[in-house]
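haha ok so turns out i had the wrong file open the whole time. this is the CORRECT one, sorry everyone. sequence first:
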Amino acid sequence: MNTEKKKISRSFQNWLLLLVAAAFLTTTSFLWVFQTKLAQENTVRLLELNIADVRQDIQDASDENLLALTAEIAGKLNNAQAITADFLFELCDQYDVTEINCINPDGLIYVSTYPDFLNYDMRSGEQSAEFMVLLDGETEYVQRYQPVSYDASISRKYAGVVLENGGFVQVGYGFERFQRDIREFVIGVTRNRHVGEGGCILIADESWNIVSDRNGNEGRNLDVTGIWIDTQTMSQGEVFSSEVYGESCYCMYKQQEGYTIVAVMPQSEAALSRNVAVGVTTAMQIVIFSALFIMIFVLVKKLVVDNILKINGSLAAITEGHLDTVVDVRSHAEFAALSDDINSTVDTLKRYISDAEARIDAELAFAKAIQHSAIPTVFPPYPNRKEFEIWACMYTAKEVGGDFYDFYFVDEDTLAFLIADVSGKGIPAAMFMMQAKTLLKSYAESGMAVAEVLTQANNKLCEGNEAGMFVTVWMGYLNTRTGEVTYANAGHNPPIIRHADGSVEIVKSRPGLVLAGMEGIRYRPNTVQLKPGDLLYLYTDGVTEATDVANNLYGEARLQTVLQQKNVGDVETVCRKVKENVDNFVGDAPQFDDITMLALKYTPSEEETV
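then structure:
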């Protein structure tokens, strides 16, 4: 008997030691991760703050220089008896600027060093319209250094000052003069700056030559520091690691007024606070966990270890789903009562589960019937309309889903059609889907343009969206007489056109934000011309993101291959062939996402195409 008790005590001791060690490792790991994240966040904030200060200093210096130059030119113009193009050219040479434009109180350029700009309405361009504040009460305005709207390869900085006789003068200069004006300021702006204790700020020009460096490398290429920046793949404001002057550092860059500003901080300095906090806390944890282990072992090992293990064994089987397990520990009255209570609870739970399963099955079947009744399911839907053919299908991953499609006429010659994908699955997604579908149809049938339909629906869906759900939508209006499709995209997959000759083309356009993502978003309209025999194929990401048992994606390439087959020329065949191909690819893997497709084929009569 004594030998058996020793074995149980030893077993409990081992298990308790394991649990305490696991808890210690878990809390230590969590602390390490938390302190690492906190140190990284502090590093990011410090780098951002230093870059922001330098960027503001550079911009302020640039603005002041150009405004002062423009004010001097404005004074010349105010004193001039006549303002002519020759006079402006003289001022350009005198002040070494690239461009001077004089704008009258109506916002029109009446004299310019660029003859093509004469009579140009400043309100008609996005960049030029910014200067209209000078006709609304402002006396001066300066614009950031940026590519000009008429030629993206040319970058200039513009400033404007109000003239005494009405209107204003706009002065612009290019990169060389811009750099010459503020280079002296830029060279000295970072020499005495520190990021933390050992970090620094570097500034490079457009040729990646250093113009300011605390280590005195001005004039040399940035790569001498060990920093290499690829602006095509490395975003501004993101932290990256690099060996700077032989030391591992965290770096961040941003561009301002033609310069690249790089903030650098040693990784060892960033991790110092984390290491100190983790070290102190770990020492305290060792003491606390050791004390807990001793107290728990002394109190529990001789009283309840055996019975607890038996009950836990039975409960483990129950929690794993074996509800027929019976707890039978009766060495003491307390454990006998506990066993009876557990067995009674499990019996009640089994009854509740059985009732709930039956009720949920009935409710899901009813919800599925309601959802499918809300979308068109009769094809062809318009037998008397020969200008087009349309067919759609939806396969939900659960009993109900968040995908949907719809189509309807908004007037005699305009067919509205759409496909959408709601975030999430199940009942919440289905309810959000019904709301979105109703709003889109209501706005479309009220006569709104397609982009305005998405704009209004987005604002409405944002109201009270506490669950944070959203929906991607691709919606188009087909002019059945001309084949032109006007559409707008709210974060959805671009559709694919299968041309009459069998070739395929992705309808590319810049998508807007998903509906219900942010209130006040404006969606832009786009157009695509369907020719006779062209088929427009819409789909949700359940098609291209379908995965097989090896977790490989179906992808767009396989989808385009199916659409290029010779035997998929009609709308129903396209959808069925794609679904068949997806099923063959997926194999025995379960369907994780809803799959929805809509195919529209433009088939005008010969008279309509003449």
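The domain at 385-609 is CATH 3.60.40.10 (Phosphatase 2c; domain 1).
again sry for the mixup
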